[in-house]
Specification:
The complex is a heterotrimer of chains A (about 325), B (about 260) and C (about 290). Chain B has nine helices and ten strands. Chain B is an alpha/beta fold and about 260 residues long. Chain C is mainly alpha-helical and about 290 residues long. The radius of gyration of chain C is 24 Å and the shape is elongated. Classes of the chains: A alpha/beta (about 325), B alpha/beta (about 260), C mainly alpha (about 290).
Chain lengths: ~325, ~260, ~290
Amino acid sequence: MGKEIKVCEFGVTFHTAHGPVSAVRDVNTVFREGEVTGLIGESGSGKSVLGMAILQLLPANARIEGSCLYGDTELTALSEKEMEQIRGNEIALIPQNPVESLNPVLRIGRQLTEAMTIHAPGKKAEAKQRYQDLMSRLGFSRPELVSRQYSFQLSGGMNQRMIAVLGLMNRPVWMIADEPTKGLDAILRRQVYEVLQEITMRDTRNMILITHDVALARKLSQKILVLYQGEILEQGTVADVLDHPAHPYTRGLIGSLPKNGMKPIGQPLKGREDITGGCVFYLRCPQATKRCRQEHPRESGLENGRKVRCFLYE
Amino acid sequence: MNNDGMLSVRHLSKSYTRGVVRRQRVDAVKDVSFSIPAGTAMGIAGNSGCGKSTIARMIMGLIPPDDGAVFLDGRQISGLKAGEMKTVRRQIQIIFQHPESSLDPRRKIIESVLEAMEIHGVKQGRAQREARVEELFEMLGLHTRLFQRYPHQISGGEAQRIVIARALTLEPKVLILDEPTSMLDASIQAHILTLLKTLQEALGLTYLLISHDLEVLCWFCDRIGIMTGGALIETGTRTEILEKPEQPFTKKLVESFFAF
Amino acid sequence: MMKRQKTENQIRTDQDKIKIDAGHVMAALLLVFILLVSLFAPLLAPYDPYQLDMRHALEPPCAAHLLGTDAIGRDVLSRIMYGGRQSLLLAAAATGLSMTLGCIIGMIAGYFGGKTDLVITAVSNVFQGIPGMTMMIAIAGLMGSGVTSMLLALVITSWVGFSRLVRGEVMKLKQEYFVEGLKGLGAGNMRILLLHIGPNLIGSILIIFATRIASAMLSVASLSFLGLGLQPPTPDWGVMISDARTHFRQVPMLAIAPGVMIVLLSLSINILADALRDRLDVRADVVKGD
C-alpha cells in the first residue's frame, strides 16, 4: 500500500504579464512513508505552492518543472482525469481555509458523504457509517445533528475539525495539511494540533504539514524542510534542524520566536544591493561573504541525511 | 481602582443588540477597569471575539462607551467634544492589526505620513515635516525610497513600521497596539516588537498591547490582563500569570501555549 | 531578486491582468472619430444642415449628396454630422449633473448612516421604482418639450444609479482600517470624505458615468423621436428618424443613417465602459522591491 513521494529538480513558475516568476526552484527531497514532514517557511517562501504543486492544484498560468514520483507513478505526467483519482483517494488535502472550502448552501452531512460517493457511487451506506465514525472520533458528540447544519453555523474550531473529516473520508494514503493553524487563537490551535495528532496516530502517518508555525511542526513532524523564497535552505530531522539549526536563516527564524527571546533577523543590510544569481538569503544574512553574492549555493550533505544550502557547510 | 496612571479606564462597558426577530443584548465589554503607569507596557490577552479590540476603540474615542470613563494622565478623555478630542489624539495613538489596509491605497506613503502632522499643525512647512519623517524612518530602519511608493508596493512589515512612524510624528505619550504583529511572520514580528521596545526606552512611551499570543505578551509587557467574554478576569505580572494563574480560563490559556 | 519576493497572491493578481484588446481599440477609435466629426461639423459639413432645396428632395445617395437628401432637400450627410452635437452635449450635461448630485447624496448616506441613510434610501427607492421612460414622458408632457425639461427628466431618472453605487462603496471603505486610522489621527469627517474616500471612488464612478452617458444618449434620441425632446428642424439623429417615418420606404437611408450612428455611438461607449471596468478591477502593476 505504502508509497513515498519523491520530488526531483522540482520547480514552479508562474507566467505573468511581467514575465515568468519563479515561486519554487530546485527542490530535491523525499517525503518518506510513515513520517510527518513539516514544510516550514514564512509568507512568500513558496511552501503552499510546493504542496499544491504535488496535487497539481495551481492556477492556470503555473508551469511545473522536474519530476514528482508517487510510488512508481509520475504525477506530473498524469492527465487531469487521472489526477482526480489521486486527489482525495490517494493524497488528500486539508485546505487552508475551511469555511471557503465548503459550499455554504449544502448541508454538511451531504457534502462529506459526497466526497466518498463521488469516487464510489454505490457506497452510500458505507459513506454514512464512515462519516459517523470519523465525526465522533474527532470530537463531535452528535454527528447526525451536525449533518443537518451548514458550515456557517459551526464555529471556527468545528469547521477546522470537519474539514479534516472531509479529507479522511476516502481513507487516503497521504495527507497534506496546508497552514492548519493560520489565524487561530491559542485554544483553537491546540485543538487542531490534537486532531492532527489523532490522524497521524490512527489514520495515516504519511503527512506533509505546511506551516509557518514552528512549534506545531516540532510537535508533529519527524522531518523538517525549511523554505525561503522558493528554495529549500535546510532539510533534516526535527532534532537536527530545529535544535541545532545549521543554515543562518534557520538559526535566525528559530531565534526570532517569542520563546527564544524574539531576536530579529537582520533587515536587508545597507550597502548590499539587490542581486540576482547569488544566495536567496544574501541580503539579510549576518554571515554572508562576497561569494554568496555571486554564486548560488548547492545543497551540501551532512550527517544523518541532512542537507544545507549554504557555503558554510561545503 | 486608581486613575493616576498614564492611561486608566474605569468600569468601561459596551453592549450591542443583535438579531432582528429575537433581539439579544451581547456584552462586548463588561465593567473593565485598569491603570497603566507611565513608561510601562500593559498587555491584554484573550481569544478572538473576547472584546479586547472594542476596548481599544473606546479608549481612542472611535466608539462611545455605554458606561465608564477613560483617563489620560489624570484627565477624563471619554465623552469629550470633537474639538477637544482632537488635541487628545496627539497624545494617544493606535496601531491596528492589518498593516496593508491601514494606509490609503491611493496615496503615496510620504503623503499618508505627512498628513498626521498636517492635521495637527505640527511643525511648519513641508521641508521641516519631511525632515522629521526622515528622522523617524531612520529610527525604524525604513528606507526613504519608500516615500514615493504606494501601499500595495510595500511589504506588511514595512507598512506596519510606516504606520508606527506616522503615529510617532505626533509625539504621543501612549500607543495602543491592537494585534500589531499577528498578521506578520515571526521574524518580522520580532523585528517590530524589538523596535517598539527600543522606542519605549528612548521616548518614554506607555503601551497597551492587545494580543491573542500570550508568549508575545509575556515578552513585551510588565503586566498582563486576561479577558474572556468581555470581562477582565485577572491581571498580574508575567510571573503571576504564568506560575500562579487564579482563574480556570487563565490556566487553560497558559496550558494551551505551553503545551507546545 | 525582486521577482522572487513576490508572494503567491500577487502572482494571482498579475495573471488576471488585462491585455489590450483589438475590439477595445476599435471602439475607442470609433468614439474618437464620432466626437471629432461632431465637434468640427461646421468645418467638415459639405452643406448647411438647415438649407432647404426642394428641387433636390428625396434624392438617393449620389456624388453631390453622399447620403442623399431628405423630404425637403436637406443634405443628409451634413445633418448626420451635426446630429450628434446637441444630444451628446445634453447627455453629458445631464449625466454630469446626475453624477454630482448622486455622489453628494450617496456619500452622505453611506458615511453618516443611521437615520440620514434611512431617509435617503427611502427616497431613492421611490425614484428607483418609477420607470425611467414614463417619468421622462410625464415631465416633458408637464413642462413642455425642450432642453430644460429633458435635462430635468434625465437627472431625475438617473441620479439614483450614482447615489446607490456611491453609498455602497462608501460603506465598504468606511470599514477599512485606513479610515479608522485617520479618525484615530484626528482627521475630521470632511477631510476623510473629500481627500480619502472620494479619490478611492473615482474608478467605479467613471465606469458608471460612461454607461450612463450611453443610455442618456438613447433616451434623448427616443424622446426626440417621440417629439418630446429636441424639435425639428434641429439636425438631430432622433429627430431625423422621426422625420424619416413618412418617406423611409422610398429612401431607406433617411432612417438608416441616423439609426446606425446612434447604435455605433452607444455601442462604442458601452464597450469602452466594460474595458474600463476590467482594467480598474485589477490593482495593476503589483511589483514589490525596486
